[in-house]
Amino acid sequence: MIDFRSDTVTKPCKTMLQTMVEAEVGDDVYGDDPTVNQLEQFAAQRHGFEASVFVSSGTQANLLAILAHCERGDEYLCGQSAHNYRYEAGGAAVLGSVQPQPVENEPDGSLDLQKLAAYIKPDDFHFARTKLLSLENTIGGKVLSLDYLAQARAFCDQHKLQLHLDGARVYNAAVALEVDIRAIAQHFDSMTICLSKGLGAPIGSLLLGSKALISKARRLRKMLGGGMRQAGILAAAGMYALENNVERLREDHDNARYLAERLNELPGFDTSAYPVQTNLVYVDVANQVDIHKVAKDLIEQGIQITPGYQGMRLVTHLGVSHADIDRLIQALKSR
Ligand SMILES: *Cc1c(COP(=O)(O)O)cnc(C)c1O
């Protein structure tokens, strides 16, 4: 199967599996797992934070961050299309009594700082206390500019807010901008990274932040049932991903651009409204094309896509080659 549904479908390669098999492990809840400890220390240093904690998923990493920054009755500002607002089952509100204050995302994925300023609540007992701004990079495959990040930092300093980055795909942003990851990370009080998407690890995310924040997050992780024992086998995969699978994201971006170009040659498919910046390709599909039927037909040819409402999102990753894209285009052509 060639799978264009998401970069979460990536499977560990043989050498990654080998490092998992050979990983030294211990009970991480006791702090005894040397491989988890090594990953957490490496990640903190590599990204310019004091500390980090290895967690089961990006959703958990975001939840821990919001709950560590905010108390009950606080609120966080975020984008209307932010993953930690729309796609995380309302966790911060349900489990932390932390209220989200979403703001419409601008076409480039950013949040207008003037609009945000208007949503910050005055210090008055009628209101929730605005504590945190949460950004996402990449967001819908779009990269936030370094300039914008600097402005967001200054905005948070001015308004005494903490600044969090949902960096599930932050390495796609760094590779697209051709900057070291720290050029992005330096602006944030906390940041998450998904090791299990384009980076190719099977399971795991990181939350990065100050020592105090991460220590609070560790307590919350335990509370949520996220304390893992011999997690070194997973941390080994994460370490491998950070050491070997970052630079190759460029290939995914090149493939995504190639895919978009080829799709635009087909009648009924149009990506021109969504210039490709990283590994996500959004496609408008004409009414005459029954995209659900297309998806069914493709399965028979060994190709998986997720049909959407009058469109689709295709994702390139380490399991999709240039030749696989040609196969998809050929299959669409010969319908
Ligand atoms: C995938 C994703 C997450 C959540 O990660 P999971 O590991 O699937 O829980 C969070 N934020 C963004 C932007 C994502 O793309």
Automatic annotation (TrEMBL):
Keywords: Lyase, Pyridoxal phosphate. It holds the Pfam family Beta_elim_lyase. GO terms for molecular function: lyase activity. Its cofactor is pyridoxal 5'-phosphate. Its EC number is 4.1.2.48. It is an enzyme of class 4 (lyase). InterPro entries: ArAA_b-elim_lyase/Thr_aldolase, Low_specificity_L-TA-like, PyrdxlP-dep_Trfase, PyrdxlP-dep_Trfase_major, PyrdxlP-dep_Trfase_small. Residues 3-284 form the Aromatic amino acid beta-eliminating lyase/threonine aldolase domain. Belongs to the threonine aldolase family. PANTHER family: L-THREONINE ALDOLASE, L-THREONINE ALDOLASE-RELATED. Homotetramer. This is Low-specificity L-threonine aldolase. It comes from Pseudoalteromonas viridis. The gene is ltaE.
